[in-house]
Amino acid sequence: MALCLKQVFNKDKTFRPRKKFEPGTQRFELYKKAQASLKSGLDLKAVVQLPPGENINDWIAVHVVDFFNRINLIYGTMSEFCTEKTCPIMSGGLKYEYRWQDDNKYKKPTKLSAPQYMCKLMDWIETLINNEDIFPTRIGIPFPKNFQQVCTKILTRLFRVFVHVYIHHFDSIISMGAEAHVNTCYKHFYYFIREFSLIDHRELEPLPGVPAVRGSAVISPLLHFLSLLITKLLRHRQDTDHNCLSFLTDAWVL
Fold first, then answer.
1. Which residue positions form the known binding site?
2. 214 is a domain residue
3. Distance (Å, rounded) from C-alpha 123 to C-alpha 141?
4. Residue 16 has pLDDT above 60, yes or no
5. Scanning 29, 82, 152, 237, which has the fewest C-beta atoms within 10 Å of its C-beta?
6. Is residue 15 part of a domain?
7. pLDDT in tens, 19-54
8. Which residues contribute to the annotated binding site for Zn(2+)?
């Protein structure tokens, strides 16, 4: 029986919804409108479109915060399976490795484990969306000129969470019966970033587009299993077979 993400989520964990919209604000009203559209059964392509008369930056801000909360929650559902031992590198299969960089401690791209990367990412996003200079909530306060560029960086990094979860931990999502919710969130996210061209198409290469989704899984269980199997093989093999196996795996995963 499929479960709601809130049912499989442990509220005591680090990963949980961190940002709420203040009732009575325009942002809250936009959020309610977006949620009502989602629950109405409308096609997700239509749901993400900018409502007539609304400000595009307000619309993007609402979705960035909502996606942050949802993806944070998704990772929280399976974070116990994503450990320093199972995921010593933040990656998406064999071809993609994601390194962390910020304006504080990590001035240069730095290799981190997946759990470390996720914690840094969620804290970094939380700081940004709570910054009134970047995500203003008061009436009359304009968005900064680089607002959409900031959102692009946030969404690009959030997409990497999907990449890691789908390629390395989708079996855990399936075992909890949460795959339908994760897939819906992914499709919603995908249509939104494509509608407003918010992520470079090269960043999307690790996962198939929504048209490739079949049934309840984005990546078939067989390919998922083969990807994990070969990943483990390559970690223990340094001989000439490496290049051949890597080539085959890239063809399967992408």
1. 82, 87, 164, 169
2. yes
3. 24
4. no
5. 237
6. no
7. 555 655 545 555 454 555 455 556 888 889 999 998
8. 82, 87, 164, 169
pLDDT band at 140 (very low <50, low <70, confident <90, very high): confident
Residue 97 or residue 220, greater confidence: 97
Beta bridge partners of 214: 217
Please check whether residue 69 lies inside any domain of the structure.
Answer: yes
Burial (0-12, 13-18, 19+ Cβ within 10 Å), 43: exposed
Number of structural domains the chain divides into: 1
> Which of 246 and 131 is assigned the larger pLDDT?
131
What does the pLDDT read at residue 120?
96
Report the alpha-carbon distance of residue 56 to residue 4 in Å, rounded: 30
Q: Cα 75–225–82 angle (5° rounding)?
A: 25
- Cβ atoms of 156 and 203 within 8 Å: the answer is yes
Residue 1 domain flag: no
| DSSP one-letter code for 84 | T
- pLDDT of 150 higher than 80: yes
Tokens representing 211 are: 């048209």
For residue 101, the Cα-to-chain-centroid distance in whole angstroms is 17
Q: Nearest to residue 171, comparing CAs of 77, 97, 237, 90?
A: 77
Q: What is the pTM of this model?
A: 0.74
* Domain housing 46: 26-253
d(CA 95, CA 214): 24
165: CATH? 1.20.140.30
Number of Cβ within 10 Å of residue 148's Cβ equals 16
